[in-house]
Amino acid sequence: xxxxxxxxxxxxxxxxxxxxxxxxxxxxxxxxxxxxxxxxxxxxxxxxxxxxxxxxxxxxxxxxxxxxxxxxxxxxxxxxxxxxxxxxxxxxxxxxxxxxxxxxxxxxxxxxxxxxxxxxxxxxxxxxxxxxxxxxxxxxxxxxxxxxxxxxxxxxxxxxxxxxxxxxx
Length: 169
Prior knowledge:
alpha+beta
């Protein structure tokens, strides 16, 4: 594992919450940072075990859950599995392409506008701070059209040939 220094903000926050920064916790945080964004549990566990082979999967899992609960890391569901990344100073969100898995970062301010609309129109206060939006990137959308996957059940997403076929059924 290459040397990674834990973000001082994260370290201060751990201590402020009353947790010790144990060698295991430090290894787990370093493993997440080493993998960058979208580190899976298995990747984190393998990275940690490359340094400390005796660490249990339960220890890694418990610490990931604790770190997520206290917003030291972000855990998001992605394609049926959970992925993790260290919480950063600058908030951002992700646009992930269903087809090519490309990842486009979106600044927090852009998404917060949408959340203000939810509050204004529906009185709904969004509480989370890190979101993943799944869809099609411009390249895959131009190749696939607007009819990929389950979305083709909606008339808006059907191609002209699909619309015609549906009308004749």
